Amino acid sequence: MEPETHLPDPASPTPPLAPEAAAMPAAATSDVPAEAFAPRTDLAQLTARTQAVREQIGQVIVGQQDLLELLLTALLADGHVLLEGVPGVAKTLTAKLLARTLDVPFSRLQFTPDLMPADVLGTSIFRPAQGDFEFRPGPIFASVVLIDEINRAPAKTQSALFEVMEERTVTQDGTTHHMTTPFVVLATQNPIEQEGTYRLPEAQLDRFLFKLNVGYPTLAEEIQILQGHHSGFGGTPLEKVKAVLSASDLAALRQQVGRQRVEANVLEYIAKIVGHTRAHKALYLGASPRASIALLNGAKALAALRGRDFVTPEDVQFLAAPVLRHRIMLTPEREMEGGTADEVVRAIVQSVEVPR
Amino acid sequence: MLLLAAGPAPAQGPTAWNRLAPPRADTSVAAPLPPPSAPAVVRRPAAARLRELRGQHDLQYVEVREEPAQASFWQRLLRWLWRQLTPAMSSQGGKKAWDVFFYGLMAAALVFAVLKLLQVDITRAFGRAPRGLPLAYEVGQENIHELNFGEAIAQAEAAGNRRLALRLGYLQLLKQLTDRDFISWQPDKTNQTYLRELAASYPAGRLAFAELTRQFDYSWYGELPLSADLYQQARAAQQQLAQQLAAAAPGRAQPA
Known about the structure:
The structure holds 2 protein chains of 2 kinds. By secondary structure, chain A is α/β, with parallel strands linked by helices. Chain A is built from 15 helices and 13 strands. In chain A, the strands form 5 sheets. Chain A has a 5-stranded parallel beta sheet. Chain A has a two-stranded parallel ribbon with strand order 2-11. In chain A, α10 crosses α12 (289-305), α11 (264-277) packs parallel to α13 (313-324) and α13 runs antiparallel to α15. The two termini of chain A are 31 Å apart. Among the domains of chain B are: 73-124; 149-247, no CATH class. The longest helix of chain B has 26 residues, at 92-117. The model of chain B is unreliable at 1-14 and 129-140 (pLDDT under 50).
């Protein structure tokens, strides 16, 4: 994971809340009892469950802590995730591992240029004996759907995902089929410069809660990967990873996330950041209100993951790039100058005053 | 004209010449012209018939576009310009002027492309501000360097708004840290950023500030209601750190 992709400003990086700030005993500095300033919602179950997921995935994946935290955030916020990175950086493996830790139906789709919408959604088959049509659900009918190399299919097939990703339903022959809960799409793609790929439609990109850039591991992490492969040739097998979170558990955790507190000034802060994307001179297309909602939901889930029952501007800043980078379009001039969406998001975050 | 001068071909009935000629099987061969001694008959169509034919729309080979009776000002202006330019453009001088204009336009396009590639903002040369839509709201609304904290905290306490009073106390601490050069104040920085800056510039105050930051976060962002006792304890902790900072040597803030 490239650290700069998740940090609003390399000059003032904003990693997760310092553990000592969250858990430090108050008696060390003042007479204020520690329990006086503590979450009013019991987050113990959420912390324990998500920690179990982290541990399971950590058996196989080296490093990528930010990536893992953001994937869990998306899972708790009921959002889909687009993972982008060059081949060989464990995008698909991470998504598969996350799916394995959940005790829910899982399916995997390899997108290819000749894939048709019916191959994804399903199709109606005539039954001669009954004289009617029967709907055969496609592989999209699962709780966790891994779409590998999503940008290898043309826009026609990708647009088949619009309804199911946003409304969690599939309409075929006038009949609407509802997806089970949870329904999470984890899609991977190579950067658009690679051979044989198509750019995803903006409408589809907007349906992803986060776009996460998966970068190369650090030197120490790569050495650790090599050591694992050298000693065990492949490290821990995938089968050792157990399911530790059921659908009902996840639904309960999501309900808890929905009850997170968000102060009015923090709501305004989110609205200002997203609003700035619509007025920025380097942007041809700004983010939609769906982006504001995504930023809010993501921040609530992240705050819960970090042991708080309220959202801080820190959470919003941390998620600004993953939420906004795929929802904005640079002007042709800025693209010609070599600018990136992350740079613009960083500049926007820097231009908005933190509420306090 | 030739046919008119030669006179009409006999419509029917045998001529003397035809009668002399033997019958032939090949009918594709054109019949020979009548002898030149025959008088030429010039046919003249009736004037009335000619007028009738001229009036028929199908025989109008040149379409004359009728000008609309109610041409707009813009249409009249364009027509006038076209009438003025047409003779000028067709002259030798006009052609030269057109060439100069065309090559000038090409040169301007080339210069524009080069300036764009070199990322030169030529709009600034004419004193114009960079483009950007105005925002419908103020970005910065409060400046901690202009606030009278003592008075504001006293007012908040008098109004029973302990949450606001604790917030103002925390902002006062941030101002003190900035004034003492322990942190570098920027509107976009979060509390955790200041905590990291303080850890580098004044490690002795790090733990106390971390706890006060936690209290502020829970009280302000977490909307935690504060009892009088809890407020007094938290406020005392803020004042304790303020005294500690006042006694410390000035720092040298470094961005975290």
